């Protein structure tokens, strides 16, 4: 979205591994991406932890498929993720989404109060992240996948949705 707020970025993420990485430590460290229209891939290659460069480099990636499938791949994880310090930066792996609402402040009428609502989070067990491992997220079916009234009516989804003839979509 167009709203940037520090706390919002802490609650909106797709993170194969979030930690205090320092890509500028080595000339061999890179963060690269590829988008071929079907999959968008971001790869952190030979990145080091800030202040802990002696433990070795990390190589991992996130692949976002147009089908909604997300795959995290871990090529090289030199130390157990549970041993990475979170004192300088949070250590997370998973998915999270949130939104921010600007409400008028009761104390100062011309100002607004920001409220962030985190409505979904999937946290990976970081103890299971190891070299040469992967995690796959497969989206659950939703009512938005229906393209016609007939598909909506015959659906076996258990959501309380209905077909909107004006918008020509399931709501």
From TrEMBL:
List the InterPro entries.
PLXDC
Say yes or no: keyword Signal present: yes
Q: Where in the cell is it found?
A: Membrane
Q: Which domain of life is it from?
A: Eukaryota
Per the record, the similarity remark reads: Belongs to the plexin family.
Which of UniProt's keywords are assigned here? Membrane, Signal, Transmembrane, Transmembrane helix
What organism does the UniProt record list as the source?
Struthidea cinerea
Which gene codes for it?
Plxdc1
GO cellular component annotations, sorted alphabetically? Answer: membrane
Question: Which named protein is this?
Answer: PLDX1 protein
Its predominant location is membrane
